[in-house]
Amino acid sequence: MTEFVTRFAPSPTGLLHLGHAFSALTAYNAAREAGGRFLLRIEDIDRTRCKPEFENAIYEDLAWLGLEWETPVRRQSDHFDDYAATLAQLQEKGLVYRCFKTRKEILDEIARAPHLSPEGPEGPQYKGAPLPEEEEQDRLEQGEAFAWRLDMERAINAAQESSGALTVTLCNDGGEISETTATPEIFGDVIVARKDNGTSYHLASVHDDALQGVTHVIRGEDLCSAAHLHRLLQVLLGYPAPIYHHHPLLTDESGRRLAKRDKAATIRALRERGATPSDVISMLKLAPR
């Protein structure tokens, strides 16, 4: 039987709130119930927004809640070379291209092209193409910044040629397993390496899940669509397919999902008001399961 391995992978861009605690505890409890392993991973590739003080707070808050994890913790900012090598695999297969366009230029282009949509899981469903070789070389020589985009049509064709129809394996709250057709095309030609750091959440997360042997990805339902893109990348890179479980998100009194701006709902604020770990866990039991 395959070992059960899951993870909690926050970005240290702010303090953890109740929604993070719910996600971390959901993954942690699933690993314990399965007799498996629970990993903590710090997804800090955004070097502008990620701060050491928030990373330290993550360790402190999770330990206060009673969670334990394996060490050393993988910090993505220590492994940009790994992600560059992963990107190189896609480059060698001719599945990515350089995109020099700004977000405004893309939105302007979409406004002029009815077949393109500004409404994808992460914004515009942009579909572009490589520049002519001479123009691209000129722009590179001028030092213009660019991102690497996945040629979605070519990538899907390559994945289907090697593995057949793309599917995502899902697990619901009752533990039932099902398969659904993957639809990564909803992202358009998604960015797999950003201009500022040479990788992306998608590429780094998929690489690390495979490297760390993650068998069950347990995270919020706001990332349901990401599983479709991640499944495509897994096939293209020869990575195994984990099972995905997407849990409900916590919301405030107005029905708005909790975010890092909600300082009153942070674990630190609750601790400072005298809450105990048991108090927080009791509060989370009110969340839909």
Overview of the molecule:
The chain has helices spanning 18-33, 52-64, 80-92, 103-112, 133-141, 152-163, 201-211, 224-237, 267-272, 277-284, and strands spanning 5-8, 37-42, 74-75, 96-99, 117-120, 123-125, 147-150, 167-171, 177-181, 191-193, 216-220, 243-247. The mean pLDDT is 91. The chain has 289 residues and is an alpha/beta fold. It contains 10 helices and 12 strands. It is globular, with a radius of gyration of 20 Å. The strands form 5 sheets. A 3-stranded parallel sheet has the order 1-2-3. A 3-stranded antiparallel sheet has the order 4-7-10. Strands 5-6 form a two-stranded antiparallel ribbon. It folds into 2 domains: 1-77 and 250-289, Rossmann fold (3-Layer(aba) Sandwich), CATH 3.40.50.620; 79-212, Glutamyl-tRNA Synthetase, domain 3, CATH 3.90.800. 33% of the residues are buried. It starts with a strand and ends in a 5-residue tail after the last helix.
Shape: globular
User: What is the strand arrangement across the widest sheet?
Assistant: 1-2-3
Number of helices: 10
CATH topology of the largest domain: Glutamyl-tRNA Synthetase, domain 3
Strand content: 15-25%
Contiguous uncertain segments of 5+ residues = none
Range of helix content: 25-40%
* Count of structural domains: 2
**Rg from Cα:** 20 Å
**CATH uppermost class of the largest domain:** Alpha Beta
Biggest sheet architecture: 3 strands, parallel
